[in-house]
């Protein structure tokens, strides 16, 4: 519980080189904003920063299959919690070598969504607790069987589900190529996923976590990312 705190980590307080940081949160929480802000901040400070964003839509066949399912395609594929988790896991596994390479020449590698997203969403869909069976299965599949690197730190964007859903809907209205999917439209699922994310953070699942507040507060964002 002591690792669940509201201060944003810096490169100096986490490690000197090769730090792997995953940025997690609901769709519409503002993960891209945080990643872009950290890249700008740390690059200007002279650090070498690499980034990856998941799912890799348009780059990965498994990610595209999952996207098609979330938008009504591929029959009943989206009904399978484990099936969808496998697709997202294989997408990340396809980038494992690139992540490993980036860690050898970067001071920090930032991930826009990572394994915890499958843990949180899968537990929410099955209405299991964060320490339940499906979360353990996700960890075993991705970190042990697929040998994905474990993050050194995870940032959770603590944004109210209703706010995040509003942002996702607004984004879809303004960007024709980003319509909301089945998960994003399901308010109950978003609320349960939010609760599972909080639970994972409280139990320091796989690594220490830090909590970042509502990104709608511009002054807070500036303080967290640019001080």
UniProtKB/TrEMBL annotation:
Which terms does the record give in the GO molecular function aspect? ATP binding; dTMP kinase activity
Per UniProt, the enzyme's principal EC class comes to transferase
Under what name is this protein listed? Thymidylate kinase
Annotated EC: 2.7.4.9
Fetch the Pfam families from UniProt.
Answer: Thymidylate_kin
Indicate the segments forming the Thymidylate kinase-like domain, all copies.
23-178
Task: State the organism named in the record.
Answer: Williamsia sterculiae
Q: Name its GO BP terms in alphabetical order.
A: dTDP biosynthetic process; dTTP biosynthetic process; dUDP biosynthetic process
Q: Which keywords does this chain's UniProt record carry?
A: ATP-binding, Kinase, Nucleotide biosynthesis, Nucleotide-binding, Transferase
Q: Which GO terms describe its cellular component?
A: cytosol
Describe the family membership recorded for this protein in Swiss-Prot or TrEMBL. Answer: Belongs to the thymidylate kinase family.
């Amino acid at each position: 519980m002591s690792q669940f705190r509201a201060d944003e980590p810096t490169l100096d307080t986490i490690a000197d080189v090769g730090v792997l940081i995953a940025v997690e949160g609901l769709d519409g929480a503002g993960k891209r904003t945080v990643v872009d802000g950290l890249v700008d901040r740390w690059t200007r400070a002279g650090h070498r920063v690499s980034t990856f964003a998941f799912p890799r839509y348009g780059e990965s066949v498994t990610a595209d299959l999952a996207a098609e399912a979330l938008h009504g395609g591929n029959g009943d594929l989206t009904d399978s919690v484990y099936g969808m988790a496998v697709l997202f896991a294989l997408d990340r596994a396809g980038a494992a070598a690139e992540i490993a390479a980036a860690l050898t020449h970067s001071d920090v590698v930032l991930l826009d969504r990572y394994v915890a997203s499958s843990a949180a969403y899968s537990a929410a869909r099955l209405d299991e607790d964060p320490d339940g069976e499906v979360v353990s299965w996700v960890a075993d599949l991705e970190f042990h069987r697929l040998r994905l690197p474990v993050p050194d730190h995870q940032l959770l964007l603590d944004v109210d589900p209703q706010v995040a859903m509003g942002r996702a809907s607004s984004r879809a209205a303004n960007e024709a190529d980003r319509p909301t999917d089945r998960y994003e439209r399901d308010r109950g699922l978003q609320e349960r996923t939010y609760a599972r994310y909080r639970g994972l953070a409280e139990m320091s699942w796989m690594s220490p976590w830090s909590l970042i507040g509502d990104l709608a507060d511009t002054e807070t964002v500036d303080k967290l990312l640019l001080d």
